[in-house]
Amino acid sequence: MADITLTQNVASHRYEAHVDGQLAGYCEYNLLTDAIMFTHTEVLEAFEGQGVGSAIARHVLDAARSEGKHVIPVCQFIAGYIRKHRDYADLVRPDIQRAFKI
């Protein structure tokens, strides 16, 4: 697994993953009053299969938890990660859990 550094790029509304200083992937978001909506996650082709996507998902969900925010996983990757890792299911805003099959 690669050594992945994760940061929040507030100006671009996304979290970014870097490997050896190179952008490896990102997760775009929109901030709402009581939640963070994850809209798109992408891992650049050169970094696929190295755990970048999972590292991003863990990081953004842990950040939401630490900030006391619910999540709205419009991004199918984040929604799928939550379905596989049920310890994050409580973060999904209650009124939309059924819609996302969480």
Automatic annotation (TrEMBL):
Domain N-acetyltransferase: where?
7-93
Matching Pfam families: Acetyltransf_CG
Please name the InterPro entries in this protein's record. Acyl_CoA_acyltransferase, Gcn5-rel_NAT, GNAT_YJDJ
Q: What is this protein called?
A: GNAT family acetyltransferase
- Name the species this protein comes from: Variovorax ginsengisoli
The taxonomic lineage of its organism, from the top, reads: Bacteria, Pseudomonadati, Pseudomonadota, Betaproteobacteria, Burkholderiales
